[in-house]
Amino acid sequence: MPSFLTARTTTVLSASLLLALGATACTGTKGEDENKDNGGREKSSSAAALPASLTSQKLDWQPCPAPSAAQGGEGKAPGKLPDGTAWECATLKAPLDYAKPTGDTIDLAMIRATAQAKGQGKGREGAKRLGSLVFNFGGPGASGVAMLPGYDAAQPLRSRYDLVSFDPRGVGNSAAVKCLSDKETDEQRAQNLDLAGTAEQNKKNAAACAKNSGKVLSHVDTESAARDMDLMREVLGDAKLNYFGISYGTELGGVYAHLFPKKVGRTVLDAVVDPTQDPVQESLGQAKGFQRALDNYLADCAKKGGDCPYRSAEEGRRRIAELLARTGKQPLPTEGGRKVTQEQAVVGIASALYSKEAWPVLTAALSAAEQGSGDGLMLLADILSGRDDKGRYSNMQVANAAINCADTRQRSTPEEVQARMPEFRKASPVFGEMTAKGLLGCTGWPVTGKSDTPEVSAPGAAPIVVIGNAGDPATPVEGARKMADKLGKGVGVLLTVEGEGHGTYGTNQCATKAVNGHLLDGQVPANGTVCS
Q1: Quick one: which of 28, 74, 132, 456 has the most CB atoms within 10 Å?
Q2: Cis-peptide into 140, omega within 30 deg
Q3: 241-246 and 339-340 strand pairing
Q4: pLDDT for 91-130, tens place per residue?
Q5: Which one of the listed residues 165, 247, 355, 412 is annotated catalytic?
Q6: What contacts 125, CB < 8 A, 6 or more positions away?
Q7: Active site residue: 162, 230, 238, 472, which one?
Q8: Is 174 a catalytic residue?
Q9: What are the backbone angles phi and psi of residue 323, rounded to the nearest 5°?
Q10: Is 230 labeled as catalytic in the residue annotation?
């Protein structure tokens, strides 16, 4: 797995982090081919018409079991919704290789909560059902089956939609990528490695992934996942895909819109990945974004006083640098016996910056670290790394590596990363070195990536609402502007929020109202809308 979360490595952490810490039907037309762009050129040579055995399959919806360890489950099945509706799960069969649609298939895990409205029609009055609304929570590597039941912000959308999500191919219970054992992953995280050591470690990881998951590694790319969503749309009985993508899910949504512009329904992209940046630019942007979020946190912490261990933002930056220097030489102990290395300390700090609501937890963790305890930072790092309190890892991180490496051609050497290190350290004294190391994430990977930037142009598609947050550490707001532009005139509709955190829906009232208006009533906000 990469040594640090790449620019696309994000999920709805503002929700999952707080949960973990306890803090405050229309029939689709079959066989329609959208594999050509406006000039008649093939968009992709990897797709062929799907057989009726796939497009006409019937989903067998059953009560959901507890999410698996690979999905990041905690051993409990999702409870019923307040109106008594049960969460239902099913399995969708999809081609392993879309170039060979009658060949091997894989099973994709799905989840839904049916709409409160049952009929078809227009207008919110009378509670008419609009179809399904499909969610992707990002990562890449986040299990939609595990995350959707906890995403309470989406419940108002059940007034007109079946809420649907899935584990993308390679993730959770969908032909999951498997690499190292939990014990091996713990041992790996306990190391402080230089660039050469990181590259060698990643080669060993890649070899383990090839040994345990070689069959699927060539087929977990974003384009294949987008084609899965179109198959899903057809099997669900929807003429168009209504979609809500968060973080990496925005890239997935953009790729879908490019491949199937005529099938784009009401769509929202929140916490948007910049589709114009190559991996180096992405990583630099993320380093700057996390540093900006940390600076905002430190200013807020010092202003509030109280339990804050720093009297000023400047003092906070200095003392965090000193703390990281110490952990680079002598890792912090924890009550469980594990050690917080410099790398894990940085990951822990980053984890809490995804949501402003987690800032008090970061304050407590940093205060404890100043006193010699690594427990708080280790807990935060474990959440971002997908490790539960039993020592089990979800496959989020290894799926992330597999999808990123299937998508991008970029393969950096330690020498190339070292040459760029001054640029990264200038971008962020705290996160620069770690994000630079992330460029080695595909070292030794057995699959050649497809490109370095996704194609998201979607002329002729319905309007897509694109939302960026000014204080987003993982997907800086500039990415939303670039995505709206690349989707095309009349397609990308930009909405920006002057706030903190990764994602806006359910946390910013103005953005939430705009999203609900679009998804429920078809009201497209004015392009360039700004929410305070």
Answers
A1: 456
A2: yes
A3: unpaired
A4: 999 999 999 999 999 999 999 999 998 765 444 445 699 9
A5: 247
A6: none
A7: 472
A8: no
A9: -60, -45
A10: no
